[in-house]
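Q: What would this chain look like folded?
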Amino acid sequence: MKPSKLILPIIVLSQFCCTSLWFAGNGVMPNLVSTFGLSESAVGHLTSAVQFGFIIGTLVFAILSIADRFSPSKVFFWCAVLGALFNLGVVWEGNSLVSLLSFRFFTGFFLAGIYPVGMKIAADYFEKGLGKSLGYLVGALVVGTAFPHLLKEMTHTFSWKAVLMATSCLAVMGGLLMVGLVPDGPFRKQSQQLQLSGFLKVFQNNNFRSAAFGYFGHMWELYTFWAFVPIILQTYELIHPATTFNIPLLSFLIIALGGLACVLGGYLAQSAGTKKVAFLSLLLSCACCLISPFLFAQESEVGFVAFLIFWGMVVIADSPLFSTLVAQNASAEIKGTALTIVNCIGFAITIISIQLLNEMRTWTNSNTVYMILALGPILGLMALASKQKRTN
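A: My prediction, written as structure tokens:
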């Protein structure tokens, strides 16, 4: 039976609403630093706390096969509500760095029941054209991730606490939309028993392993780039004192336009092939990492922003394509677990990358530090290329 045309837009809207929790802390980071007397290093720590929470959450969800044993829409709803509550905890006036880290950790933990579970729900509805469907879905994640930056731009109208309250309200609304309007999909196969080793078995498949390793390389770069976009813009302003950027608005645009790249990549993959488009996107983002230091010296601020927008598009365009390859190479009854464990490992890699770059910036003022982001794409390209040689 063909699903309603409204199913995908509802999933996409729900995903957007809920994933706005992800970088809600980053969107108001300067306010958190000044309000609670935090050090500048708190930027990396608070970002990593969300990632670490997501990693632990996805590991628990994968080991217990939550998304395969229970209704994915109900899992999505409860995680949206709980994630919203912990996100709201950041506005408490008695917060310390420890309590802020705890609130962001548990926000990340419950995002584990939103992002990969949302992809699982889409995979349960769309076997054909999955790449296009996940392109819209990851696109929603990207815009949701960027949204707090836009809200921050509006803090002359709204306080930073209102930004966090708004993202929590959006998350609850997204959860209600999913549980109320998206029943279990026609291609869902419920796992009847707990398979504690199920998340390990998927890696025995060569095609799955190739897609997963490509995704891991992509993740080394992605979230670190997103986390440091405002800092990259700020650095350019310091080098070029005559330049004044609207950093929150530009950060939103640089990240959010990646959502459009996800959708375009999904359509392009239908004609050119999922793996080829993923490979090209990863190659282009790798090139951006390597040439990024030279861009800080050039005088044209328009050229600099255009480069960051291009980087913001190619850095994410391959994400739904890797998720498509992962879903297509996992058996139906453990598809949710497969997507979840790959997300778990991918986000574990982001913590290392974010903390490494954060630390490197204390060692040196050189902008060559961003070249370290190319390491992941290079290894990801090698994984994809070696697989292509065996199959062609």
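The first helix runs from residue 7 to 19.
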